[in-house]
Amino acid sequence: MSEARQFQHIGQRTIRPDGFDKVTGRANYGADFRLPGMIWGKILRSPHAHAKIKKLDVSKAEAHPDVLAVATHQDFPSVNSEAFAAGEAMMDVLDLARNVLADKKVLYHGHAIAAIAATSEAAAAMALNLIEVEYEVLPPVMTIDAALAEDAPLLHEDMMTQGLTEPATTPSNVASRMELKKGDVASGFAEADVIVERTYETPTVHQGYIEPHATVVRYDDKAPSLVWASTQGHFDVRASVSKLLKMKLGQVKVIASEIGGGFGGKTTVYLEPVAMILSKKSGRPVKMIMSREEVFRASGPASASRSHVKIGAKQSGEIVAMEATLHFEAGAFKGSPMGPGCMTIFTPYDVPNLFVEGYDVVVNKAKVAAYRAPGAPQAEFAAEMAMNELAAKLNIDPIDFRLLNAAKEGTQTIYGPKLKEVGLVECLEAARRSPHYQSPVGEGCGRGLAAGFWFNIGGQSSVTLNLNPDGTGTIIEGSPDIGGSRASMQMMAAEVLGIEPNRLNPIVADTETLPYNQTTGGSRTTFATGMAVIEAAEDVVEQLKQRAASLWNVTAEQVDYKNGVVLNLAGDDQMTLAQICASAEKTGGQISGRGNVNARGAGPSFAVHLCDVKVDQETGKTDVVRYTAIQDAGKAIHPSYVEGQFQGGAVQGIGWALNEEYVYNSDGIMENAGFLDYRIPLASDLPEIETIIVEVPNTFHPFGVRGVGETGIVPPLGAVASAVSDAIDRPVTKIPCSPPHVLSMILNQG
Amino acid sequence: MKTHVQTEINGEAVECLIDPSTTLLNMLRNDLLLTGTKEGCGSGDCGACSVVMDGELVCACLVLGVEASGAKIETIEGVADKDQLHVIQEKFLEHAALQCGICTPGLIVSTKALLAQNPNPTEEEARYFLAGNLCRCTGYDKIIKAVMDAASVLKEAS
Fold first, then answer.
1. Do A211 and B77 touch (CB under 8 A)?
2. Considering only CB atoms, which chain A residues are within 8 Å of B1?
3. Disulfide-capable partner of B68 in A16, A108, A168, B7 (CB 3.0 to 4.6 Å)?
4. Quick one: fold of A382-456+603-748?
5. Buried b (16+ CB within 10 A) or exposed e, A228-257
6. To probe the interface with A, which of B51, B83, B84, B99 has the most A CB atoms within 10 Å?
């Protein structure tokens, strides 16, 4: 796709079709649904970070008149360890069962132990006090160092490290190790004139979606049971519930509510299987909503990490070797995004000698969940900080240094494929030309920049496009719309059909209406579900042509379709889409198109962010004073929502870099489980977030789309922390750059 | 023991029986089925449940339902005039100032309160006034642009 293609609708800034409902309060989110006879469920959570459950007695709770059901781990049919794909990651059924209701051991403060369904939310909460639990409290393992210590208490006494060259013989808190390499780093470093080597740390953070997890479940023995859930992937909720409760997929119907943010955190289940047990036992529909405190303590978070990075370059600026050792906290159960961390850390650079090893480490914190480009922000933060330090040592502009070594078409990645057409060079050049980079750094300010890479994924999506007799229609998709994707679907279908987008209403259908759709995650929706929409629309076009051809007594080859009109190439006849729909009854029945894809060829995307900060030298408080996000979108279907993804990712990253962290006390209890103390960025904290959309089309997508949702959270950690380094003239190796941390750097190394 | 509450919501007289510990937020959502007002935290930190009570912007999760007795409450459901969106709502859509939309009702109610007390805010004033409304999706950029645009349209109209 070398020439810029002219589009009719794509690239416009339409009004989203679900907009009216969302600005008037009519849209129904997880907590907004109710069923007749509905009761409320609440969860009893562990007061300890690490303990054995010596006794669990629910009899007094069960006897209470307001209580209609009690659930514990014993209510799960016995499940065995079995990996299955759910959301963006592989999940182990047994771990999932133990996470949603603890078995024998509690592994983090807030770990679910039992659940009660009662006549009201307040009654359920009160009845939790009737459950008797005796614990044998164990020392909590709260850091990577503590988990790796020789005499560390073990979270799982049977956990043997996977992926070692010699099989492990004793259990440990290290779930797995992986290693990736290219070339020979030892000989590479031997050629280096300058080497930077440092260890970087990032804290536990939360996705911070504003809507807490919520569900309504009605068990049914004779018909499919109903699950209403706020989720990024209702088909994977169905898979998880069916695995945990040994129900057939056809016995579970999941309706995705509108979703109030997820960022990866709503790709797994917490409440739904528990509510199913409670509903089955009580014979009533059960509603469960997490409090904000429960969201912080028992959902998400994203991995804390420690990354040791070594980069060597020649005086010319040519990088000769890069090496890293990554440790990622998985929380209570194996499965941190250490793998993608290893795969992404050095991918922005075309370097002959690479070596990366990663360790997945369990600790007494909530099991981590995906968070926007899972693993990449932590890993690439380390690489980008070292890159900037190395550029400074070489006295080369950091953009020039990256351009000298930038990954491009043909670059062999460390994880497998060679890159196809990608836009890192274009992003770097756009960054250099930007008004931001061309402006002088303000008095008392610092400037930083960083690049970022994320794969993006494709996968399975299914779409049906139904036309009505008056030429309007419905796009039936199975991808929960987390940020405006219905608008993109509408525009892509309209582009193919050559009609106004608002003639087609996109809806997110339940699990009975469509075949399996993968979760909204991996920046896949506009790419893969978009491909299914295009395929369904093309299917419709073919049918419209056939219908007209049959009316005109010509072959389908003798007709053409353009701008919503079928033309008879053998004569002067023409019919609009609406006219064909109106006569569909006479030509074989109504018209509907179908697109079932397993999309390959997702386009990797790169971003470059620029950040200026001002640091108060007396308090250490850091303010972002200017910020620019530059990213390759392939093709921006709806530029406003593409910019919105860049800006949202940038600001989540700014929060990660400057303020956000879980603060634990010595007992392993999070001390800031609320938005007042876990401070996500506010409107008053921020400047305008400038954006530059770069478009290097992805040749595998009909319109050139790459995913855009995740890459934008990768560069800000490095961009912001580098700006702080620049402002205080000290190397930052640990985030967040919160006021106490920055002040201690200013004072201790002054 | 339930308490009888009579109040006015978006110009309509309503009454309900609630437990005295019920918050205004839960009364709106669970007893009156006005679910446009959202709960994000239950502790007054996120602003998703912003409503106006007797002319004052409050977090409905920090007000008891019984405190609404005799008061005039304005919620997101009362911002549009039937199918005619308020300028603030139109500008939020035009500027793509929402992604997931969960914070949007609270932000629109807060923006209306801002422009009622300060029809001509600077961008900085808007950012500080809306600092009590958390949004995790947008980074606030497009929200602030929508607010400033709505302010200028409303100013021209007045």
1. no
2. none
3. B7
4. Aldehyde Oxidoreductase; domain 4 (3.30.365)
5. bbbbbbbbbbbbbbbbbbebeeebbbbbbb
6. B99
Interface residue of B102, B123, B129 to substitute, partner A, most A CBs within 10 Å: B102
Distance of CA A328 to the CA centre of its chain: 17
Q: Does B136 sit within 8 Å of A641, measured CB to CB? A: no
Strands A305-313 and A286-289 turn out to be unpaired
Q: Pick the residue from chain B with its C-alpha nearest to A291.
A: B41
Domain enclosing residue B116, as ranges: 87-157
- The yes-or-no verdict on residue A729 having pLDDT over 70 is yes
Same domain, B7 and B74: yes
What confidence tens digit (pLDDT) does each residue in A709-725 have?
999 999 999 999 999 99
What is residue A3's predicted lDDT score, i.e. its pLDDT? 52
Q: Which residues of B touch A289 (CB under 8 A)?
A: 39
Mean pLDDT of A122-149: 98
DSSP A515: S
Calpha distance B38→A230 (Å, rounded): 14
Architecture of domain A33-138+211-260+266-298: Alpha-Beta Complex (3.90)
A119 touches chain B (CB under 8 A): no
**Would you identify the CATH topology of the domain A19-26+458-599?**
Aldehyde Oxidoreductase; domain 4 (3.30.365)
Mean per-residue pLDDT for A599-614?
96
What would the pLDDT profile of A461-502 be if each residue is shown by its tens digit? 999 999 999 999 999 999 999 999 999 999 999 999 999 999
| Cis preceding linkage at A736, omega within 30 | yes
**Quick one: average pLDDT of A131-152?**
98
Distance of residue A259 Cα from the nearest chain B Cα, in angstroms = 6
A209 close to B (CB below 8 A): yes
CA distance A597 to B133: 40
Is pLDDT at A2 greater than 70 in this prediction? no
